[in-house]
Amino acid sequence: MTARIERPLSPHIQTYRWTLTMALSIVHRATGLALYFGTLLLAWWLIAAATGPTAYANVQAFTGSAIGRLIVFGYTWALMHHLCSGIRHFVWDLGYGFKATEREALTWGALVAGITLTVLVWIIAYAVGGGR
């Protein structure tokens, strides 16, 4: 008869206490995926601009609608958040920011900067007449 050997459990999502760093790491991956789909919208806009006024008017009608603006706003946020979170990962790749306080500061900084940059881009866009 063989004795049962107690082995350590493999770590999984229920083992760890959730932190902001963990959540934003997952959001970083999700925004990377969202950027793929948002780039299809950007390609549609560019192709329509090259095709002619009717095609361009169709894209403008979609992006000017409530759902279109929400999608473009989400794309803008995904782009800005992914950028700021990428800078955070770059700092870590350089070997800095691994202490708990530094890690939290970088994470909060990426979160706040992504939101701030998104709002700033939209304010500037409306200020120069892009939101008509």
TrEMBL record:
The chain crosses the membrane at residues 20-46, 66-84, 105-128. One of its GO terms (molecular function) is metal ion binding. Gene3D superfamilies: Fumarate reductase/succinate dehydrogenase, transmembrane subunit (1.20.1300.10). Signal peptide: none annotated. One of its GO terms (cellular component) is membrane. Heme binds at H82. The heme is bound between the two transmembrane subunits. The keyword Repeat does not apply. GO terms for biological process: tricarboxylic acid cycle. Its cofactor is heme. The keyword Coiled coil does not apply. It is a multi-pass membrane protein. It is found in: Membrane. Keywords: Heme, Iron, Membrane, Metal-binding, Transmembrane, Transmembrane helix. PROSITE patterns: SDH_CYT_1, SDH_CYT_2. Belongs to the cytochrome b560 family. Part of an enzyme complex containing four subunits: a flavoprotein, an iron-sulfur protein, plus two membrane-anchoring proteins, SdhC and SdhD. The complex can form homotrimers. Membrane-anchoring subunit of succinate dehydrogenase (SDH). This is Succinate dehydrogenase cytochrome b556 subunit. It comes from Bradyrhizobium uaiense. The gene is sdhC.
